[in-house]
Amino acid sequence: MKTSSPASPSKLFSHLYIEKSIFDHPKTEAIRTKFAASRVVLIDHYKEVFNRPNQSFSAQSQSKKLILAQRGGKFLHEGSQYSDGFDHQQFFYASSVMGCLYDCDYCYLQGLYPSANTVVFVNLEDAFAELLPHLHQDTLVATSYDTDTMAIESLTHQTQEWLLFAREHPRLHLEIRTKSANIKGLKHALPSERVTLAWTLSPQYIIDRYEHATPSLEKRLAAIREAISIGWKVRICIDPVIYTDTFDLIYPDLIDTIFSTVDPDSIEHLTLGSFRLSQSHLRSLKKLRRSDVAFYPYTVYNEMATYPETVESHILETLLAKATHYLPAQRIRTWQRQS
Amino acid sequence: MIYLITALDAEARPLCDRYKLKRSNALPYTLYTGENTVLLVSGMGKTNAAMAVSALLGWRLPSPGDILINMGICGAPVNYPIGDALLIHQIIDGDRHYYPDILYAHSLAETSLICVDIPQSSPQEYPVDMESAGIFQAASKFFKLHQIGFLKIVSDHCAPDTVTKEGVIRLIASHLDTLDYVSGLLTDVQTDHALFSQSEREEIDSFKSHFTKSQGDMLEDALCFARLKNSDFSLDLFPSSLPNSKRERGILLENLITRLTL
Hints:
The structure holds 2 protein chains of 2 kinds.
Chain A: E1 15-19, H1 26-34, E2 39-43, H2 47-50, H3 57-61, E3 66-69, E4 76-78, E5 90-94, E6 97-98, E7 103-104, H4 109-112, E8 118-121, H5 124-131, E9 139-142, H6 153-156, H7 158-167, E10 172-178, H8 184-187, E11 195-200, H9 204-210, E12 211-212, H10 217-229, E13 233-241, H11 247-261, E14 269-274, E15 276-278, H12 279-288, E16 299-301, E17 304-306, H13 309-323, E18 332-335
Parallel strand pairs in A: 1-2, 1-3, 3-8, 5-9, 9-10, 10-11, 11-13, 13-14, 14-18
Antiparallel strand pairs in A: 4-5, 6-8, 7-12, 15-17, 16-17
Helix pairs in contact in A: 11-13
Chain B: E1 2-6, H1 9-19, E2 22-24, E3 30-33, E4 37-41, H2 46-59, E5 67-75, E6 85-93, E7 96-98, E8 109-115, E9 128-129, H3 132-142, E10 148-156, H4 165-173, H5 176-188, H6 198-208, H7 213-229, H8 246-260
Parallel strand pairs in B: 1-4, 1-5, 5-10, 6-8, 8-9
Antiparallel strand pairs in B: 2-3, 3-4, 6-7, 6-10
């Protein structure tokens, strides 16, 4: 075999596609330094790569690429009906990253995006400028919505920037949802009452089967304990619950496991919710033919696919019964279809 | 199946010898076929390339595990040594840019490639060829982007007059192992395999024909669920005979779906 270059790129982010206009941006330079062995491809616009027709989400998931870009349009979007706005006057989610390092079979991103690659928008300052006019009233921003920002925090430092911004704006509340076990970035920031770290937890069986490339339950729990110990507000989300034939065993056991090492009084809320997805995203998931999660015989109600009512009720009743051993009902939030 | 595309007869000749391909008259293009390989000589230029590749892929539709590789020579700036093999990660055709997905680790040099309309005598920023954009445009209608590869061998430093037929044959022949290497890597990353075998598909379709479209879709989902949940799942659940009554068939299907999705 003849070769003309000795370098064999690492699998994660073996290629950096960088918009020419932000090639010299300080954040771009920092990321390029971190991935010095990656091949750099200059592009005009991120959509040239991210929005190409005929990409294979499942094949790309084995070798994700990183796209660095400048967001020209809106960073902030209204929170969706599938999420909990926790009764704030305004609820936005910020889209500063598209795509996720993790690869969960049930994730709606597979239906939302044509690509498994990750786009990082380096001009986060524009998101802050967009948010400023809204901050005269209580506003919740989910910073980790179309991605898991904590999973790539060491690369982007976006969470740290959000925390600094929130310190200066007393009506801004942040929800940082994650499956990450890496909280290094949070250790340098001052914990805030207005910032909630929300960890999604699943039984190890579900993690192994459906949450590819994510940290183990044990590691997530260790991160939660550490975050609590340094003063952060933590919410635990058993959401989405994936219903399997072992549900009655593994999910109640998960709750016992959590509260055997996490003091129930130290968490803000426990959120419970069964798997749900818009019908159009479910259709896209089916086309990928990657996981049995996509093919369960869900019922569709108001364009939302979820478990049949009997299954959904069983999930919530079982988990509520177990969770109330540890927490008062008012600190348990549940997602249920609106009928 | 491996689909190989070259622009020139001289580029094709070493490939025919290597893979023991035989001339075929199935298309109005120079075409060679073998056991698991088909080789098309598209002619020069992106329009010819797009037309030829469209004709080939319309004639022999690719399957999920198939791959397509364009192998050929290219001119390049002087910092690209003559004889080097280049894997292409970006094709620049004026304002339009195309990106084959390179989802495998490899040891080749990678570069962008400019697809031009006429042979270039003055150096460009990147290597140049005359077909890649046309091949990409046509191939990407039939293939996913990670099924397509572009392997170029540097033939000259923007001095097209120095390129001879014998030189092209020699250059391509010297990189047949490289082609096998790329072909192996591309094949290894193909993940979109069919969930059901051909005979299973026929059995499923035959069984579904006794039901409405909507019932058939529900059954298809349940079968996918069962197969993805357990790859050893076998299709021996289908009854050999079906009730005549529509209602009874409906009940039978409902029970079957429940069993499949337990």
